[in-house]
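Known limitations

Files may contain more than one protein. Parsers should not assume a single record per file. Below, a two-record file is shown to illustrate correct handling: read the sequence, read the token line, then continue until end of file.
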Amino acid sequence: MPGPLDRQPDKLDYLSPTQFRFGINQLPKVEFFIQSCNLPGLSMGNTEIANPFKNIPVMGDKIEYEDLNITFLVDEYLENYIQLHKWVTGIGFPEERAEFRKHRDVTSNTPSVDLAAGGGAPQVDVIGAAVADKAMYSDAFLMVLSNKNNPIVEIDFKNIFPTSIGGLSFDGGATDVEYLTCDVTFKYQIYEIRTL
């Protein structure tokens, strides 16, 4: 049995909310401008077994992940915003189906897996066997840094895709310049935490 001294922590520094780095493979021009992001929470439901006196709670077996949300500064030429916009319109093809193909074959920064041309099975790590075309998804990372800016923990997000992009509000009557930011929400398959 561990003694009292064995139970004491050996690292007494606290986690700083400003010491992080975030990147998305599909959006290289967004990484430099990231203002905030979250480490999504997760939950596992439960069920109850009927009992004449009190129902007995039993743990669930499916994990639900919260959304990944980021906020980034929009650059003057809207390059990072346009990159994200092309990704969403590539997935949703609002005008014609060719937009989907163009994003998959030309615009995407993630290589496509062409199963018909003998490309073989998609290269996936975790549960991704259901993902036949990686060009519509991307991987992302959240790097937690120490107080000396050394990486200590990396969170890897698998197969993320955007579900919503916030709008940009221009205001000619503003008396002080506040640079525009954009909020983005992503869904993903799973995330893994690795200590470095």
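...continuing to the second record:
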Amino acid sequence: GNVDVDTAPTGLRLKVLGSDYVPSATLESSSFVTGAPSDFTTITWEPTSQVPGTEVKFQVASNIDNLTWNFIGPDGTAGTYYETPGTTLHASHAASQYVRYKAFLSTTDDSITPVLSNVGINYVSGCNTPGQVIFPGLTADNDYELEISLSGYTTQTVDPLTISGNQAHEIFLSP
């Protein structure tokens, strides 16, 4: 209610009633699932600033069951809002699997509207992206043998692998 998603250029805006914008509106997103317990870390949105007299702010809810949605702001209560893009999310969003946001749009001038074109919530799931591995405790200037194998693929071996600071290696496996 009170949200316009059809006006070009695309973006979420306040709805026009007659010739004036409504003073406020909210939109609750659908659920995003990470597939495993994850730490939701920051919320960002575009545009990053709004026309004076308008405002976009958010609350975020997360859980492990996709059932209970308690929207909160940066202090962990329902009485606060994320008002600056790139803000760190409250620590209670750690070890969750589902996340939603609620966007709040408002104006103090019925002739202008805030616009929201993009929302992002960053998260970390485990310590690596799927397919990546980290080897802690290796010593610089030492040689190691690295063997990569997966059932149904040809094993790849890197020998010697000399450690010299932080490194990244891309290994392709062939079926």
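Parsers that stop after the first record will miss the second one. For reference, the second record is described as follows. The chain has a mean pLDDT of 90.
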